[in-house]
């Protein structure tokens, strides 16, 4: 049932995309902002309590609803799980955002491409040339392939609907609080560390998926050599393996808040372009198919073994 719920959620996402109104993550973002406003203190304990207040009640309510609906009807429990997972993944949305930048680059509309990638990344996009826009978009596709798709699928497979909620809300709080700024370095410590822990296995499975679906030798070589140079312990393997699999150069200097920051180079081969974005999207899409096929095969194997 778990594997079929994964398939149903992926199909719902492909057909419907993200809810245009009343998206659960938008509502959670507002709740998190209210919690931060009321509970903010420059300390780890305050941030940890804020994280618990934001995430744990939602996980508990999801678990109770899953238990009650499954007891009522196996079909109701299955449908609930599929809908929860659908709300936790953003595969189609990722593609829609990235393709806007890809299309603009192909049309030679650099300003439009900058505007599109500015909705995906936090760097100063006005300073980017066409290749840098393509690289930023490709990086976002690779990293969000893990954060918005594979990570949620992994924790759903492990813990069901509560696991998907735990992962996605934790990832959202990391995106809101997990910055090493003077204001958030201590308050966001728990959000950042918990997200790192939840992403440790999914990130490496995502990197392995990219390696299998692209230039495997290059992906493994870049993962081994370059991943540890990246400042994030989980984004490093994902982006290094993804860049290697695509045979494209990513990373390198990027502008943030008016200053060009030095970043390691990831991958190898040609500079990024519109084709790199398309190839990254195709790799994530094929990865979702592989994960679902593996989940279904594992489910049937488990049933045969325990028959």
Automatic annotation (TrEMBL):
Xref: InterPro entries: Cobalamin_biosynth_CobD/CbiB
Keywords: Cell membrane, Cobalamin biosynthesis, Membrane, Transmembrane, Transmembrane helix
Membrane disposition: Multi-pass membrane protein
Pfam hit, one: CobD_Cbib
Source species, domain of life: Bacteria
Compartments (UniProt record): Cell membrane
Regions crossing the membrane: 45-64, 148-167, 288-305
Pathway: Cofactor biosynthesis; adenosylcobalamin biosynthesis
Family assignment from sequence similarity: Belongs to the CobD/CbiB family.
The protein's role, per its UniProt record: Converts cobyric acid to cobinamide by the addition of aminopropanol on the F carboxylic group.
Annotated protein name in UniProt: Cobalamin biosynthesis protein CobD
Gene name for this UniProt entry: cbiB
